[in-house]
Amino acid sequence: KKTNLLIMSDKNYYVSSFAWSTISKILNAILGFISVPLLLGYYGKTEYGLLSIATACNGYMHLLDLGMNTGAVKFYSQWKTEDKIDKIYKVARTNISFYLAIASINILLLIILAFFGEPLFSISHTEFIQLRSCLFILALFCILSWETTVFNQLLIADKQMSFTMQIQCIQIVLKGVAVFLVFLANLSITTYFFYLTAFVASAIIPYAYKCRKDNLIDSLKPAWHWEDFKIVITFSMSIFALSLFQMTATQSRPILLSMFSTHGATTVADFKIIEVIPQLIIMIGGTFSGIFLPKTSEMVAKKDEKAMHAFAYKWTTYTTIIIATMCFPFILCSTEVLSAYVGSEYSYLSKWLIIWCLTVLVQMHTTPGNALVLAHGKTKLLVIVTAIACLFSMLLNVWLCKYFNVGSAIIAYFIYTLTIIDLYYISFYKKLLGLSRWKLFKCFAKPTIIAAIVYIIIYQVPISINIFHGLNERIAYILVCIIKTIIWFIPYITLLYIFKVIDIKQLIKHGNL
């Protein structure tokens, strides 16, 4: 009975965590889809771009975390299993001190940027004054935002992810309220940003209350227990280098655009417009990483090569199919999506959206292989190659800015992704995992080629908003997207079945992996 209860508990944890995580992502996507065109139209492209520059600068400063977000959860979970609750209390309170120090550094950097950062950005003096106000607002809420991380780690380690996702859902609703207030109360861009930042920082209240209520921490007072904390920070630093270069490659793109493009604010606004769709695909597809890693760790611990090989081939195929099913409709309907999203005047961004979606497809098909590599813990070579690829992509972004504006960030990141993928095929798959590179590549190529062939055929079908004459233009664009997606999806799945890329019976049984 006890075993059955544990199984039920784990099942409920996975189901509730996944469900609330999905709801949170969907709500966030809906908010972005609605708010971006509204705010873009209300404030204008330049002012909206300033918000993106401010959040990009502060987002990059999250590297100050030093990998603690992963390390703390790992050791909290381990110590809870070992009934070392006193260690959790000591490290959690030390974490409060640690993040207080990190927040102070973050505040100092934001203030320095606010007073002396004008030459760094390709914006006018008036625009920089507005940007300075946004940076001050971020500094004001910095401590609350960082300290929220302490309690989030405790809740995640205690398998209360569903609670954190519920709070995030509430935050998204509050962000929607802030957008509503812009039009109701005629809020300035800085006032809107103040409310937005305050709502994000407010999560510390329910998080801290829940941690104290459930005795996940014995006190909210800062403390310093170095001996116990050293274990966590040492482990965290081992994965910090990898996350440093990965995050730099991602977060530096809008910053570099703001510094080196012809007009920083408008170019960053273009970037933020097309970023929403790839980010949504990455968020949904990213759930695979959390699902795969525990399973691959178990396989590696058992040294079950047969299971690892079956997992790699089968799940590379399935992952590719799922990501392709999300990417190709946006590739097919890129112009219509942008026209429905922010207006037909932004349809010139469609080619960059297509390249970005293809980048996501290439990047995420290696998720199963990446889970196996992480389970083995062999990341030294990955760190080195990621560092080189990151530096090269940044330099390429800067060089191409003059010619392609927002496109430079898309092209540079595509090259970065290909470099990392090459490493997997050249080194990890064969030498570390003992996999057949050709067989693994076919697992990716076959469903992708079928998707591309169907895309080329459907692309020739003359479907436009003219068939919905009299309807609201944006609604017409949405309907065209739906029709194109359906007539692409049905033959795609049919061909996957005909060419035996997928087996319906096996799909039903795949839970035994």
User: What does the average pLDDT come to?
Assistant: 83
Tell me about the biggest sheet? none
Chain oligomer state: single chain
Structural class: mainly alpha
List unreliable stretches of 5+ residues.
Answer: 1-10
Q: How many beta strands in the DSSP annotation?
A: 0
- Counting H and I runs of at least 4 residues, what is the number of helices? 21
Overall 3D geometry? globular
**Strand content range:** under 5%
Task: Provide the gyration radius in Å.
Answer: 24 Å
Q: Report the order of strands and helices.
A: HHHHHHHHHHHHHHHHHHHHH
Relative helix content: over 70%
Word description of this protein:
- This protein is mostly helical and 513 residues long.
- It has helices at residues 2-43, 45-60, 68-81, 85-116, 125-140, 142-157, 161-184, 189-201, 204-213, 226-260, 264-285, 287-302, 305-332, 334-342, 350-364, 367-376, 380-404, 406-432, 437-459, 473-498, 504-509.
- The radius of gyration is 24 Å and the shape is globular.
- Residues 1-10 have low confidence and may be disordered.
List keywords for this structure.
21 helices; 83% helix; disordered N terminus; 513 residues; mainly alpha
